[in-house]
Amino acid sequence: MEELRNVGTLAGERGQMCINMEWGAFGDNGCLDAIFTPFDRQVDEASLNPGKQRFEKLISGMYLGEIVRRILLELTAKGLLFRGRPSPKLQTRDIFQTKFLSSIESDGLALRQVCAILEELGLHVTCEDSVLVREVCQEVARRAAQLCGAGVAAVVEKIRENRGLEQLAVTVGVDGTLYKLHPHFAQQVQKTVQLLAPRCSVTFLQSEDGSGKGAALIAAVACRVA
């Protein structure tokens, strides 16, 4: 909720506005170009909506597996992975699912088990391959978590400044399998927020069916007001 006087697109000084950020579209104006890698551009261009929802394509579980797959193809082409021989499966778009990132990064998962996951994709894998693939998964997921945390930090800092507070305590509801199931994603998001917004105390609360319940709540409020 934001004070109407802080909403630049609407006239008026009194009252509040419920803000739907739609932050997945952040970067559609080119402001994120500097951090887009060639792999991000490939994923964007091959998507159903090229040039749109660009921030989402950096942080969403829908896209992380495909980013990893394209990095693995590049490393294979350079002879750094899989003896330079990609499998037909690995060359299939979206075959490397984001759940593989969560599995490969699971604490205590032996390299032998990482090899088994990769062999499902028809790859002949060495221990060195498994180590490198795990590092790629770690970096892609870490970047996504840090960018997500940076977005949250920017929002809570904006709220704190607008309210003229020295300190802000706020709860952020979170939905999504990446946050819930990845072994390190949630911790990395929270750590980034603490680093970038030290004057905000942010509590993350997992929600179930957040979109559906939110829509129902808004409809109920509208009916009561009416």
From TrEMBL:
Enzyme class: transferase
Pathway: Carbohydrate metabolism; hexose metabolism; Carbohydrate degradation; glycolysis; D-glyceraldehyde 3-phosphate and glycerone phosphate from D-glucose: step 1/4
Domain Hexokinase C-terminal: 1-221
Catalytic reaction list: a D-hexose + ATP = a D-hexose 6-phosphate + ADP + H(+); D-glucose + ATP = D-glucose 6-phosphate + ADP + H(+)
GO CC terms: cytosol; mitochondrion
Keywords: ATP-binding, Glycolysis, Kinase, Nucleotide-binding, Transferase
Gene Ontology terms for molecular function: ATP binding; D-glucose binding; fructokinase activity; glucokinase activity; mannokinase activity
Name of the molecule in the record: Phosphotransferase
Organism of this sequence: Chelydra serpentina (Snapping turtle)
Taxonomic lineage of the native organism: Eukaryota, Metazoa, Chordata, Craniata, Vertebrata
